[in-house]
Amino acid sequence: MKIFTTEDVRAIDRRTMEVDGIPSRELIKRAARGMADEIMARWRPTRPFVFFAGPGNNGADALAIATIMMGQGYRPTVYLLNIGGQMLSLDCRTFRDEMLSSGGQVNFIEIKDQLKLPELTADTIVIDGLFGTGLREGLQGGFQVLVRYINESSATVVSIDIPSGMTGDLNPDAINRNIVHADLTLTVEFPRISFFLRDNADLVGEWRVVKIGLNKDIIKSTPSSFHIVEEAEVRHLLKPRSPFVSKADLGSALLVTGSYGMAGAAVLSARGALRSGVGKVTAHSPLCCYEIMQSAVPEAMFEPDEHKLVVSGINPRHDYSAIGLGPGLGTNEMTFSALDTFLKVHKRPVVIDADALNCLAARPYLLQDLPVLSVLTPHVGEFDRIFGDQPSDSVRLMKAMEVAHTYQVLILLKGHYTALVRPDSKVYFNPTGTPAMAKGGSGDVLTGLITGLMAQGYKPEVSALMGAYIHGLAGEMAEEEHGVYGVTAGDIAANIGKAIQSIMKPKNEI
Ligand SMILES: NC(=O)C1=CN([C@@H]2O[C@H](COP(=O)(O)OP(=O)(O)OC[C@H]3O[C@@H](n4cnc5c(N)ncnc54)[C@H](O)[C@@H]3O)[C@@H](O)[C@H]2O)[C@@H](O)CC1
Ligand SMILES: [K+]
Q1: Phi and psi at residue 185, in whole multiples of 5°?
Q2: Mean per-residue pLDDT, 326-354
Q3: H/E/C letters for each residue in 461-504?
Q4: pLDDT tens sequence across 51-82
Q5: 147 vs 155: CA distance, rounded Å
Q6: CB-based contacts of 204: which residues, under 8 Å, 6+ apart?
Q7: Does the beta carbon of 135 lie inside 6 Å of ligand 1?
Q8: Which residues bind K(+) per the record (predicted)?
Q9: Cβ atoms within 10 Å of 488's Cβ, excluding its own
Q10: N or C: which end of the chain has fewer CB within 10 A?
């Protein structure tokens, strides 16, 4: 599913009104209906509600919501910003008047004076309809004072469309103190790009999308660089199995992995690969991993390195259909030199994780040698070690878009919403996963899984996208069995097969 920049959302709004002949106030009514339902489903009329409405259509949304709730027995207190001489938008005036004629009362906050602000208690539900997509720059002066007052209160805060002061886009300059910190954000039609960045998690809180029926053809024809991966998309990509298939048709994956004390990474990456559906899995590891691998994952073959404790040379003995490098390799100079030599001669896309990423950080000239369309799977720390410290998630994602293009590689930036960044600068946010997966070894499983998918002939960008989705879903399934504290990386690997099956054959399908 595509998601859009603020500018695009505004354009889709505008074009829907033109093409479908829907007046702006009708769209606001639809938004208000959906949002009022969400709010009333959560809180009873006995709770004190304080609405802050701004001068634009975000304020109009808030006023329309308050009017609907009044009709259902709620008694909201409504404050409208009175910005010296500045006009309210036409819709803001319309919904203010509608509220007044329904018997409501509007209080004013003079933003230029010493602010007189209402008491907000722990019981209060604040509805933040100050600013939405019409915000031009960061909030200042009296607006800042109001926002900080809301943030410092112990009230529960619901933001309309986006937390006031925030943009929906990648925004390197955002100052969080000047943005409302919402517990719940009710956003119109699409989640915004900024919702998928960890930095903004405390600003957005839980988010829900309220549909207002924007024109589907206009949405379809509006290009976007940003997407959320959906299950139907992954289902469509997964190839069905022919009854006549043999293991020779299903590829052969090589994992360069493990060192003394980190044989577990070799085990876990091999398990991830084995559950991917690949025909054969081989581990290239130092001799010290031999017995461990043969007993822990007997299904995988073992290609011993000449060195006992670390990988010292990567000369694959067979023509493997995909190679993944990194889990548990350690940072020994011998291993880095082996990776260095290998990356200079190997020309097919590879998967690069963990210590292979650390090798890129130590020897940045290797970035130029990476096979085109290789998949790099860094978490935030690994990314910054290679590409320099990034001040925020917005800047990091922008940097990932830049380097994916420069080096023509795929970057799978791991986090709560893992982002796949492609060389064409398209970004795919992955929605699956759970905090239960924040464990050592889960990345090793992902590397094995992606390598296994690539070995079966899935393109690198497809393998990375499907791998992240399946891995997250397997983690969710593991959490059902073991709980958020108890999941291990091995549990994630063990659930990969079930996750793939549930994507291919959803329960509600006959
Ligand atoms: N058709 C529509 O117009 C729809 C509008 N919707 C709502 O309307 C919102 C957008 O409405 P608007 O375009 O009126 O914009 P906003 O209501 O977000 O803000 C516009 C107002 O804020 C002022 N402003 C902008 N930046 C400021 C700053 N830094 N400091 C102080 N004042 C500032 C502007 O002068 C203007 O008065 C959406 O976020 C959404 O909530 C939705 O209900 C869907 C349909
Ligand atoms: K808002």
Answers
A1: -120, 125
A2: 97
A3: HHHHHHHHHHHHHHHHHHHHHHHHHHCCHHHHHHCHHHHHHHHH
A4: 999 999 999 999 999 999 999 999 999 999 97
A5: 13
A6: 159, 162, 163, 166, 182, 185, 194, 195
A7: yes
A8: 58, 128, 164
A9: 18
A10: C
pLDDT tens track for 205-242: 999 999 999 999 999 999 999 999 999 999 999 999 98
- Contact predicate 419/400, CB 8 Å: yes
- In ligand 1, the atom with minimum distance to the C-alpha of 59 is 17
Going by C-beta distance under 8 Å and a sequence separation of 6 or more, which residues neighbour residue 397?
A: 170, 197, 413, 419, 421, 427
pLDDT band at 317 (very low <50, low <70, confident <90, very high): confident
Instruction: Give how far Cα 267 sits from Cα of 77, 176, 247, Å.
Output: 60, 43, 21
Q: How confident is the model at residue 172 (pLDDT cuts 50, 70, 90)?
A: confident
Quick one: CA torsion of 451, 454, 456, 457, rounded to 10 degrees? -170
* Banded model confidence at residue 507, pLDDT cuts 50, 70, 90: low
Tell me the whole-structure pTM to 2 decimals. Answer: 0.94
State the residue for tokens 């209060």: 124
Q: Ligand 1 in contact with 61 (CB < 6 A)?
A: yes
Is 57 annotated as a binding-site member?
yes
Q: How far is CA 315 from CA 25, 305, 323, in A?
A: 67, 9, 12
Looking at residue 63, its amino acid is: L
Q: What is the rounded CA–CA span in Å between residue 474 and residue 236?
A: 18
Q: In testing the pocket of ligand 1, which one of 17, 26, 133 has its CB within 8 Å of the most ligand atoms?
A: 133
Portion of the chain with pLDDT greater than 70, in percent: 99
Nearest residue by C-alpha to atom 27 in ligand 1: 135
CB atoms within 10 A of CB 140: 10
Does the C-beta of 58 come closer than 6 Å to ligand 1? yes
β-pair partners for 410: 375
Q: Where are the alpha helices (DSSP H) in 198-248?
A: 201-204, 216-221, 231-237
pLDDT at 510 over 60: no
- The predicted pLDDT at position 177 comes to 84
Helix or strand (DSSP H, E) at 12 = helix 6-20
What residues form DSSP beta bridges with 323? 254
Q: How far apart are the first and last CA of the chain?
A: 25
- Which one-letter DSSP state was computed for residue 189? S
Domains of the chain: 2-224 (3.40.50.10260), 231-235+250-504 (3.40.1190.20)
Compute the average pLDDT of residues 472-494. Answer: 98
Q: What pLDDT shows up at residue 175?
A: 77
